[in-house]
């Protein structure tokens, strides 16, 4: 099951997993996009708002009736605003915590019984969380997203400890700069010019397909191998705060 499947990394992940032989349930709020993805690549879509407990419960019930669940790939999340701490909007911070942390907890709690059944039958099961390098280093204007993604990262870390002794892998993929069609535009409240400027001059930022490829590798690795944390960035981004703009070239 892949969340956030209607766009960006979630959509790319659903596609690459289908290409590599997985049966995929794609979850997102936008039902019409899921229908298009069903027709395009053969996933099964389930429309849900994962911040709503009733939607998470309905999803878990539907999955229980439809077949075994071998992997939870949780991509859905998001950021709002680039305000300094003193200028932040509490409603944005609440939304980021709900969509990145609380929804993750609800989803894990609802699906763990299904993952345990799959692990018992087939040897192992997977949980995989797409967090961010924003969980690892603070940056000005990012405090709300830093805090939310750090919360999700800590959830994944604690879950791995709590599942010790069970054949359920817990993987965290933390991308740096990824160019997708919606993330920065949504964060900047629809300002496409400001969103485009983030990537201006950066040679080959990561793409959704790059991240999806790493996700697929982690899921298809031998069942005894757990990739606890994969931090991935474009070569042009040496660290969260250090970004090269312009062509990359060796210093000869």
TrEMBL record:
Top-rank taxon, per record: Bacteria
Cross-referenced InterPro entries: DHB_DH (IPR003560), NAD(P)-bd_dom_sf (IPR036291), SDR_fam (IPR002347)
Keyword annotations of the record: Oxidoreductase
Family per similarity comment: Belongs to the short-chain dehydrogenases/reductases (SDR) family.
Protein name per UniProt: SDR family oxidoreductase
Organism annotation: Microbacterium wangchenii
């Amino acid at each position: 099951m892949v969340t956030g499947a209607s766009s960006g990394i979630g959509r790319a992940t659903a596609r690459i997993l289908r290409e590599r032989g997985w049966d995929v349930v794609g979850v997102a709020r936008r039902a019409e996009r899921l229908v298009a993805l069903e027709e395009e690549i053969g996933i099964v879509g389930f429309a849900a708002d994962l911040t709503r407990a009733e939607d998470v419960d309905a999803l878990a019930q539907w999955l229980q009736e439809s077949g075994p669940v071998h992997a939870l790939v949780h991509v859905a999340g998001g950021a709002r605003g680039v305000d300094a701490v003193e200028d932040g909007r509490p409603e944005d911070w609440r939304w980021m915590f709900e969509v990145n942390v609380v929804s993750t907890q609800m989803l894990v709690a609802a699906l763990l019984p299904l993952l345990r059944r799959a692990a018992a039958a087939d040897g192992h099961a997977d949980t995989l969380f797409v967090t961010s390098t924003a969980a690892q280093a603070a940056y000005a204007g990012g405090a709300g997203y830093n805090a939310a993604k750090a919360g999700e990262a800590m959830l994944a870390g604690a879950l791995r400890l709590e599942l010790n002794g069970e054949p359920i892998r817990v993987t965290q993929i933390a991308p740096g700069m990824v160019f997708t069609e919606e993330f920065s535009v949504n964060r900047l409240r629809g300002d496409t010019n400001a969103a485009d400027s983030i990537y201006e001059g950066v040679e080959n930022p990561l793409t959704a397909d790059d991240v999806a490829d790493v996700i697929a590798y982690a899921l298809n690795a031998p069942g005894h191998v757990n990739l606890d944390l994969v931090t991935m960035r474009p070569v042009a981004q040496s660290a969260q705060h250090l970004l090269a703009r312009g062509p990359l070239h060796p210093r000869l």
